[in-house]
From TrEMBL:
One Gene Ontology term from the biological process aspect of the record: Ras protein signal transduction
Family under the similarity heading: Belongs to the RASGRP family.
InterPro entries: EF-hand-dom_pair, EF_Hand_1_Ca_BS, EF_hand_dom, Ras-like_GEF, Ras_GEF_dom_sf, RASGEF_cat_dom, RASGEF_cat_dom_sf
Secretion signal span: none
GO molecular function (one): guanyl-nucleotide exchange factor activity
Pfam families: RasGEF
Presence of the UniProt keyword Protein transport in the record: no
Key words, A-Z: Calcium, Guanine-nucleotide releasing factor, Metal-binding, Zinc, Zinc-finger
The EF-hand domain, residue ranges: 403-438
Residue ranges annotated for the Ras-GEF domain, each copy included: 138-369
Classification lineage: Eukaryota, Metazoa, Chordata, Craniata, Vertebrata
Record GO cellular component, one term: plasma membrane
Protein name: RAS guanyl releasing protein 4
Amino acid sequence: SVFADSEGKLSSPKGSQLVHMTLMMHSWVVPSQMFAHKLLTLYPQLSHSRTSSKHTFLSRCAARQWISQFPAVFEANTLLEQTIEDLWALVRSEGEETNSPFTDTSCLLPRSPHVNVYRAPSPSMKKRKVSLIFDHMEPDEMAEHLSYLEFKNFCSISFLDYRSYVVQGSVRENPALERSVMMCNGVSQWVQLMILSRHTAQQRAQVFTKFIHVAQKLRALQNFNTLMAVTGGLCHSSISRLKDTFNLLPPDITKALSELTELLSSHSNYINYRRVYNECGGFKVPILGVHLKDLISLNEALPDYISEDKINLSKLQHLYSNISDLLAIHSCTPPFEANKDLLHLLTLSLDLYYTEDEIYELSYTKEPKNPKIQPAAQDKPPVVAEWGSGVTPRHDPDTISKHVNQMVDSIMKNYDQSQDGYISLQDFEEIAANFPFSFCIRKTDRDGQISREEITSYFIRGMSICAKLGYNFNDAHNFHETTYKRPTF
């Protein structure tokens, strides 16, 4: 037995791993309720056998370990919980236990705390007002805050989410993985839109260069998932076709882009990325799609059973090893701090949603087609969120409103020096330049200043149009029909 004594302690690290693997991975081949039922039917047989002193509590200990280590399984399955209660009723009838594992919380191990990588700013940091202007943000600062958001999403993915995706082949009805898809696509689009929002080729080249520096910092932080999203945005054809912009990039920037695309290339099943990732220690965020692909390959390549009634333990061990490696990253400590105001700004920026056609239309507006210029051969860009294809999760109006209000709170905290509910129009225009939409502002209550309510209305309108939420603004704005004779945004 892997249990050493009547307290249910495990006999060895190997025994502990065996039990942990069985409890985590059995549902890949046997439904959890069936597994629990097996414990229920096994108990009476063991309790009346000659070896009952050694074996009767095998069922009890397995149930204890299962409930304490994987409580989420029971929270999602009331029938499973009832089966375990039936097992404990049998145990009580034998006079060996008095409490149910669901009522006697002393028998349960503490649940893993929610991972929160935000650290309170130091006293000196609290006094400093942060800049919420894109052009003022340092690439290191931007990479660290994107990594905060990425790691927070990654830590919310459980072993049940991995199994759901592999079995279902989709992120539908899987909120944790949907958030990961949304962030990857959001970062990629945000990179493209920030470049395309600039009016001149020189300005676009400067933004492109800044994002290369962000990508290099992401590489140094070993955040490969966001690195894939940023590099994918820089390599997107709506950006790579901007010949005037690319001609202004310094040689070291184009070299850095080439090195990043080589690192993230899908060539030979991501051989370059896998080599670098396996050499990384400490804090790191993997390219989630690559590792999900590995789980799918294992699940399809190996049979569930090696004979009619023998489970293929080798398959479970391989799957368990891969998933355990991903879950182990949750306990890593990020080597950075996060500022909530910048997080609110980035969160709202990543809520933007444009269709491919809209992004291409914007690209052609910035640099129209020139039939005399042949497009240069481009490296094959990384595929962003390929594993989430076919699903376009979007935020609902309530979430957008929440994110807008959070960002407006941050704006007022950092720019409303007199605390009267107003900031200068100049500050507002610089902050609004962080977003690729631009609207005329109605006459404000004060000359040269804009109120909290007017800022909120501006961003609600812009975000709702970009996110295709369909808000009705007829009550708040006076629209006039206008005919344009050239492409206009």
